[in-house]
Predict the structure.
Amino acid sequence: MKVERFRWWDVAEVLGIEADLFGPEQWSAAMFWNELANSHHYLVVRDQTGGVLGYAGLAVQSPAEAWVQNIAVRRDAQRRGIGRALLEALLAEAEQRGVGKVLLEVAVDNAPAQKLYAMYGFEPVGIRRGYYQPSNTDALVMMRDDS
């Protein structure tokens, strides 16, 4: 497993993963391009052939706060520690930048992801009603505060 920087040429492959995992709530190519254009910290995990197994992003909003934008792992690569490796890499980047608070949103019905985040010190701090569209699923806001 190799964690490395997300590059513009990864967008096409990542879109396939997005479509499979998130369906109508998937991010568009333009959304990923915007993240990269704004110099947000994005990573991919590759397999031995160079294919993308998973990806994640972190947006540093201020010296005090960052948001995990997304963490996704291809279905056939789940339950192998890839999501954990991506989260650890994002948290290491936040620490390196001196960011104390890291926040994220996760679907209220995504118990496995919530469990992973809780293992890394994230705690629920709020709910965003109807956040995910078009399903109208609520998002649980979680925060890790190391400040």
Observations:
- The chain has one domain: 2-145.
- The helical segments are 11-22, 29-37, 82-96, 111-119.
- The first strand starts at residue 2 and ends at 5.
- The mean pLDDT is 95.
